[in-house]
Write a structure and sequence with these properties.
about 130 residues; alpha+beta; Double Stranded RNA Binding Domain; 3 strands; about 15% strand; elongated
């Protein structure tokens, strides 16, 4: 899937944390914004899936916000924001595998019961003796 750079909006701010005078003067932190509902590159089904799976990155208007301030360079932070967004979209649009229901094996049932019995015996031994 291809989304043109024109659909992104970038906002820059000062980064937090240590860095001395450099961090106090340069706006190297990058915020990538992407409007999912207004994107012509996505179809309705993809938009719905993204809105459902990327809830933590969305605001009330359906805009994806992604912040990057790992590098000292604004350019590197911008590149990383784009890469992270691509990875987020790929993961969100990856089709979910259907779970095929299975039953527990005989060995797993026996193991569970054995562990359960061991646990009860352990607790039984902790009791005070009844004279």
């Amino acid at each position: 899937m291809y989304i043109p750079l024109a659909e992104f909006s970038f906002h820059f701010s000062r980064s937090s944390g240590p860095g001395g005078q450099h961090v106090n003067r340069t706006e190297s932190r990058v915020e990538l914004r992407f409007d999912v509902s207004q994107s012509p590159s996505l179809n309705a089904r993809q938009k719905q899936t993204i809105l459902r799976k990327l809830k933590t990155y969305l605001d009330n208007d359906g805009m994806v916000h992604l912040f990057v301030d790992t590098h000292r360079s604004q350019f590197q932070n911008k590149q990383e924001a784009i890469e992270r967004f691509q990875n987020l979209l790929q993961d969100a649009l990856k089709p979910e595998k259907k779970r095929t229901p299975t039953r527990p094996s005989r060995a797993s049932k026996e193991k569970r019961l054995r562990k359960k019995k061991e646990q009860s015996q352990k607790k039984e031994q902790r009791k005070k003796p009844d004279w």
